Fold this protein.
Amino acid sequence: MTFNILETVRDISESIASSPNFKQAMDAIVLKIAAAIDADACSIFLIDEETQDFSLTSTTRNLSLNEGQWKIRRGEGLISRVAQRGEVLNLEDSEKDPLNFELPLNEEEDLSFHGFLATPITHQGQLLGVLVAEKLTREKFSQEAVSFLVMLSAQLASDISNALISENDPQTFFLAGIPASSGVVVGEAIVVYPPADLNSIPDHKISSDIDDDINAFQEAIHAVNQSIENMSKALAHSLSHEDQLLFNAYLQILHGNSFKGEILKKIRSGHWVQSALKSVVNSMAKNFESMEDIYLQERASDIRDIGRRVLAHLQSNEATIQNYPADTILVGPEITASMLAEVPSYRLKGVISGQGSANSHVSILARALNIPAAMGVKHLPLSLMDQKEIILDGYTGRIYLEPSPILKRSYLRLAEEEREMQSSLKSLSDQPAETKDGKLIKLSANIGLIADIDPAIQVGAEGVGLYRTEVPFMILERFPSEEEQRILYRQVLQAFSESLVTMRVLDAGGDKILPYFHIEEQNPYLGWRGIRMLLDHPEIFLIQIRAMLRASVGLNNLQIMLPMISKLSEVKEAKLLIRRAYEELQKENLDIEMPKIGVMIEVPSAIFQLEKILQYVDFISVGSNDLTQYLLAVDRNNARVERFYNTFHPSVLQAIWQIAKLTKQHHKALSLCGELASDPLATILLVGMGFDSLSMNAAALPRIKWIIRGISFTDCQEVLEKTLKMDRSASIKRYLQETLIDAGFGGLVRPHKIT
Ligand code: PEP
Ligand code: MG
């Protein structure tokens, strides 16, 4: 037997992805494995969550009982031996082994199996089941077959584990995408394809009159312009002004010189209009795709979308009018912002796209419309999905096809609870975040783009606790000038003129790459990030500080925050530069107040110098995202080690507690602006630790406020004390979950349960 192991593993893995459900995927696997290694039978046993027995999930054997009825008790037989030892077993004759391995054969099938090969299926340290191959002959399997089965079971483990995660229905199959907008929905999948295929256009020279092609092109541009304007109008009530600007971006491309101008030039030089369009669209899209910045890469999809729309008009085969059901979940290989805009907004309940990321325009729109979205979903079985009922979980990016009644019921309940909660939470926007015994916590917003301002104001954010100024830097093609920055910062300060805005100075580096300031590093998270880069480039730092200070004239609600501080000298140096910028501006007769200056505590070394650092700053803000990453030595963006990235790790909680205690002792303002602030499980702990303010994304703010208003500070302190004594994050989470449920906030922790 010779075969390409890698190719076969890949082939099997792909066939799982394209199977409509878990059972069919498993059935396909056993058949393919048996064929690949010349086995006479192949079976998969998975551990039953409840009984912990091995349950036969799929087999090529002809059994007298249904597969699901077959269980092997944990501890019994060869299967248990493989599981216990966690290693491969390759036997000449399983019948001779005292532990034996028996499945009930169909009586008509008088066969006995001897050769036996089994491997454990283990995902991230957890045993999920055992894969078994058998032969009728008395012989071991070849070494090649052993390698194949070991590789395959490692590969299969993550697919199987994904499917097993659902608690209510362990054998539910799902597709995994990038969560791009939160929320859950059960709805009808409507599959849409790009209206016309540019790549099928042949390249040839013009055969008719050039003027005819120019006229046809101008008409198509006019028609597309009209349809974009119509879409923008249709969504005018649902989108903020900022989000509507996305359609202006489309129009700018449509009429821009690099698009329209270039195509006209090509037609005039003798190219057929359709091939001129294809060539310009492809070269513009390629340009964007080659950019480092993921936001700019996504613009390639806008260009292609516009190209297809123009082509559809040139071919006069506009997309057929779709009938969208009341619970439409738009699905497609590449959903674009304009496809989304074609669905009446009151019918659009979710978006799933084979391409794209959380930065795509379509994701931005989905978030603005408050509907769940999953992007970048690999192997979407589009033909099986159209007009079928599906579940989209925007919290995890999971899509369940043909969901079981149990799963459907729990998601419908979750969706209903979310709706109820959202509407009751809305009424909280003008209420203070005050505990039952009168402790006030300031809840402010994390923002990055101007578009984030409006949602923050809507939910009643008391200022901005973290303005990630690198975000606007990331979507430009060069460093913004001092004046450009001033205008931008002024908008933010003005929008929150009654409260404080904490502007974090440029935290570039890590995964936040400026496309025009290329830094090539092996290990960017441990590299030239944040304050390190700024102190090496005081000219960049000073321009930003000057812009912030000038933007604050007359408003005086600015606070400046320094990221990635790892030692005291960085604070001192940065403060000197800030003072220098301030004095320069005073000399220019600007009437500004010296803003409060604070630091982020997100690098462990800063904790050990905190006492000294506190003497130089007005406030501190815990960056729990990076603090977790650096304390636990876990890359925050690496999916493989995601399970080690745990903000509820006892050491992380201890570190935050130390920071909180010291800061309070020095009577300095204490805030936290990492993702932990928006996790309901953490609220009780953070209140108990004495945080004065928490800063989070706008969507999370109402529920955190709801919790704070329903608990007392003294209870929080008690819970904190107990938690700090625990030594496992799993027990900590369970305890916090139970505490929240007891306090009447079960609805908030349920999403954790389903996912
Ligand atoms: C953090 O590290 O917790 C933080 C808020 O900063 P960022 O996520 O932007 O690194
Ligand atoms: Mg950080």
Q: What stands out?
A: The domain at 437-700 is CATH 3.20.20.60 (TIM Barrel). The first strand starts at residue 41 and ends at 47. Residues 563, 602, 623, 625-626 surround magnesium ion (ligand 2) (CB under 6 Å). The CA atoms of residues 64 and 106 lie 4 Å apart.
